[in-house]
Amino acid sequence: MAKRTKARKRAVELLYEAEARGVNVGSLLAERVETPTTQHPLQEYTIAIVEGLVEHWADVDELLSTYSHGWTLERMPDVDRAVLRVGAWEILHSEEVPDPVAISEAVALATTLSTDESPRFVNGLLARISEVKPTLV
């Protein structure tokens, strides 16, 4: 598994864990940086994703809500919501990752971690956000 792919997966895991435990993801990130729970510290890209999401949380969620026709954020499976947040952040705020790569990586995570219907949903929603991105910036 590529380094950035692992970093994205770890970011999704942190988002999911924070939501499941009802804790602030920024606080959880700080805790994990200070006291890692595995022998490997968090990768810099995982930290960048989570910190970027914390900074742009409201904007990312607003876009996901706006373009997910018929689905509120609360109605989405928890894992899908985490994957979509990471993918949307990369599309909107990462200058290093091309949109098709961000979408492909998010679809791969949804394929591995979520339901059979999730990859198609993730692909469609992130593709739509990528399409409208020039009007947002």
Automatic annotation (TrEMBL):
GO molecular function: RNA binding
Keywords: RNA-binding, Transcription, Transcription antitermination, Transcription regulation
Name of a matching Pfam family: NusB
Record flagged with keyword Transcription: yes
Boundaries of every NusB/RsmB/TIM44 domain copy: 6-130
InterPro entries assigned: NusB-like_sf (IPR035926), NusB_fam (IPR011605), NusB_RsmB_TIM44 (IPR006027)
GO cellular component, as recorded: cytosol
GO biological process, alphabetically ordered: DNA-templated transcription termination; transcription antitermination
Keyword Transcription regulation (UniProt): yes
Function: Involved in transcription antitermination. Required for transcription of ribosomal RNA (rRNA) genes. Binds specifically to the boxA antiterminator sequence of the ribosomal RNA (rrn) operons.
Family designation: Belongs to the NusB family.
Protein name: Transcription antitermination protein NusB
Organism from which the protein derives: Marihabitans asiaticum
